[in-house]
Structures are given as C-alpha cells and as structure tokens.
Amino acid sequence: DAGITQSPRHKVTETGTPVTLRCHQTENHRYMYWYRQDPGHGLRLIHYSYGVKDTDKGEVSDGYSVSRSKTEDFLLTLESATSSQTSVYFCAISESLAGGLTNYEQYFGPGTRLTVT
Amino acid sequence: GQQLNQSPQSMFIQEGEDVSMNCTSSSIFNTWLWYKQEPGEGPVLLIALYKAGELTSNGRLTAQFGITRKDSFLNISASIPSDVGIYFCAGYEGAQKLVFGQGTRLTINP
After folding, report:
1. Phi then psi dihedrals of residue A59, to 5 deg
2. Cα separation of A85 and A32, whole Å?
3. What pLDDT was estimated at residue A101?
4. What are the CA-CA distances from residue B77 to residues A1, A4, B63, B84 (Å)?
5. pLDDT on residue A41
6. How far is CA A76 from the centre of its chain?
7. Each residue of B27-85: pLDDT tens digit?
8. How many CB atoms within 10 Å of residue B10?
9. Given B42, B99, B103, which is nearest A111 (Cβ)?
10. Rg (CA), chain A
C-alpha cells in the first residue's frame, strides 16, 4: 500500500463548472501523476509533478491544470468542465525521498469517477 | 505519442489453463511494467522489467523483457478465478512519461 488517497471518489457536475480533484500521499514520494482512463484509450498521462511547484504536461493536458504546493498533495483542476472530460481519473506516485521505491515503478490510487452532464 | 500494441484484447479460458499475453512497440523502451486492474480499483503493479532479456517471476506470473527492447510478454500459469481482470503493459516514453497498452481482459470459466 503506497498510501495514496483520492477525493472525491465520485462526482457529478455540470458543463462549464470548475472541478478540483485531490490526490494525497502519506509517504513523501517525489513524483506524482494524474491519468485519465477511458474505454478504448487505456490510461493516458495528463500532468505530472517532480517536486513542490514543479510540474510538466503529459499526453492529454489540454483543459487541465495542476498544482502542488506541498509534497503530499497534487491537485487536478478542470477550469470549465466539458462532457469530453467525463472519465475515471487516477493519481499515481513513484520514488520515495526516503528510499525504497524506485523511480520507475508507479503505484496508483483508487480513482475518481467524474461525470460531466 | 508512442502507442503500445497489446494482444489479445480479451481471453476466455478455463480455470487451470495457462495464459499468455504480449505487448509490442515501434520504439525501444528501457523499462516495462505489467499491471492488473480489477473493477472499480486502480491498477496494481505486478512486475517491473529493467533489462533486455530479463525474465522475472512473481508467484504464478512470469514476464520477460524482449531482447529487441520493443516487446514484452506476461504468462500466468494454472489460472485461478482471482486472476480475472484487465492486464496492462506499460513502458516509459522519455523520463517519467509512462505509456500504457490497451489492456487484455481475462475471463475465467470455472
């Protein structure tokens, strides 16, 4: 158990509203990631963070922003949700600052199911 | 971006049978990861491979990193009902950017 929680676990929102998803980790891991999972597309990287205030874009970053103001929290924001952003969102972590996990093994949270109506 | 071709897309087998699935890419990968996902949960890491030709086991699971570095396979021996789920391969496209295959859905008839 890599100590990852995601909140909320389920959310229904209307088109055009802002939405923020939270990923929280308890084990001081350096890297955190946001993915979305859709039928026929598998898991695709949205954004990732390699430290506090250090982030980079992934494959499908349009329409999403992220923030990491402290090691344990990585936030994903949809500024104005669209129906195409209906998906299951997963957070993942890799590399513990205190050693242990390697830089290459990513461990996933339980997911957030987001529906945009 | 890079795409991984994972096959087969689905498998229907009898309990006790062995299972084999593979993943191929058009580019060289330095790391291959295999995950299993069950309904309503996040993917769980099964095996990580770091060297071409590497063969690694985890219980009844065995995975190999292809010598060309463009493919990997996962075998499950003597399948049991709890092996049901979707299996994903993944490889790194550049630092920190993990690319996933489409998944192999495994169904087991008791």
Report:
1. -70, -35
2. 20
3. 58
4. 25, 31, 11, 13
5. 78
6. 6
7. 888 899 999 999 999 999 999 999 999 999 999 999 999 999 999 999 999 999 999 99
8. 11
9. B42
10. 14
- pLDDT above 60 for B110: yes
Q: Which two tokens stand for residue A39?
A: 């039928």
The reply to whether B103 touches chain A by the CB within 8 Å rule is yes
Nearest-by-Cβ selection for B96 from A48, A107, A109: A48
- pLDDT higher than 90, residue A26: yes
Residue with tokens 């008791």: B110
- Taking the Cβ of residue B45 and every Cβ of chain A, the question of whether any pair is shorter than 8 Å is answered with yes
* Helix (H), strand (E), coil (C) string for A27-87: CCEEEEEEEEEECCCEEEEEEEEEECCEEEECCCCCCCEEEEEECCEEEEEECCCCHHHCE
